[in-house]
Amino acid sequence: MYGAVMNTAASNSPLTTGTLTWTITPPSGTPVTVSAALSNIGGQFSHLVRVPFESIVGSATPSGTALILNSATTTYWRTNATLTLGTNTYPVTIPSAPGFFTFTTADRGKMEQVDLAVYAPGLEANPAPAAFSGAHHAAGGQFQMTVVGATGQTYTLLTSTNLVNWVTNFEFTCPNAATTLTDPITTNSPRRFYRIQSQ
Description:
Strand content: over 45%
Structural class: mainly beta
Distance between the termini: 24 Å
Largest sheet: 8 strands, mixed
Helix content: under 10%
Number of helices: 0
């Protein structure tokens, strides 16, 4: 399944960050949960989720991590989906497609566009870049800085000793608008510069 994830709290703006978690429930047996990170796919879509299926041959035992693909038409429910952004989890709905899909062995490899909607107040389609709002040395000589960014947005902290060569220090997702970061390497470095880059 693929499609766009629209934020109904922000004029149906597309979301391209966060993790989509989708539980597919068969008519009998164990549901299967799949996850995918949202991204910008061709400027049109934001999720691509592969639903695992298995065809059982003879007396083989299913793995338990995939749905059973039968020769008879089988209906699977797909209404249990959530989007996680930072520390927040939002329920996801399917506004323009049914809450189920049907499969047989003839549908192996089938693709379907399923656009999703989520009500996530405060999240923007293209959040403003993060900015530093304060910094200080913590106990033990570690350098701490406060970053103001978009909640749920992932950023990369880059460091340099000469403002020419930049190295990725680590990636982080803002759990709140203001996030405190600690750089433990500063105790070994006499001079260090910082930059933040949106993902």
